[in-house]
Amino acid sequence: MQFCDSCGSMMVSDGDQMVCTNGDCGATAEQDTARAAQFRSTELQSGDELIETEEGAEFEGKPTAEDVICDDCGHGVAWYTIKQTGSADEPPTRFFKCKACGYRWREYN
Question: Domain 48-108, CATH 3.30.450.20 — does that match?
Answer without folding.
Answer: no
